[in-house]
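seq:
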Amino acid sequence: MEDKTELTAKNLKKRGFVPHIADKAEVNGLVSKIIGDVPCVIGSGGSMTLKELKTLFRLQDAGHKVYSYDTVSDEERDTMYQRAAQADWYVSSANAVTTSGDIVNIDGTANRVAPLIFGVPNVVYVIGSNKIVSDLAEAEDRIRNYTCHLNAVRLGKKTPCAVTGKCSYCNSPDCMCNVTTVVHHPTRLQKQVHVILVRDALGY
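struct:
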């Protein structure tokens, strides 16, 4: 897996991303170093990886304003998506990354993928080694038949995959596979897109 991680980092760099390789214990310190000490606004979508690492709470404790499910009050939730999408930085994981350097996500509401590709100038991805795949076909298979099933069960969604564990390309109102994004390169409007590849398995 170390060879795969290094290959992925090498190809991400060729595509214009700023790659890093870190151990699990090093991630929060690295994220803080990348963002810096000057207080700023940070947005984030749902992420079991960041939740496991407590990354967003670390950033909040450092004086940054963080808009995410875990850090805002109930009163702020209605405007959380908009404020997160207008942040200085967006911190997220990804559902998969290919060894050639494509970053792949599938979303239900697109509140996570939209800021990752437009609007927020600086992005930090934190991606566990378990999410590194060979190609786009493997990425989609992994997300639809593994990640979405686990999230559907966790969130109590009434989708076929929550029961069968396999994607049926359903039309359920609870479907979480509404938007698929593949980021090949940072966009021209983005200043910095850092990708931290973690040697450990994290999230779904």
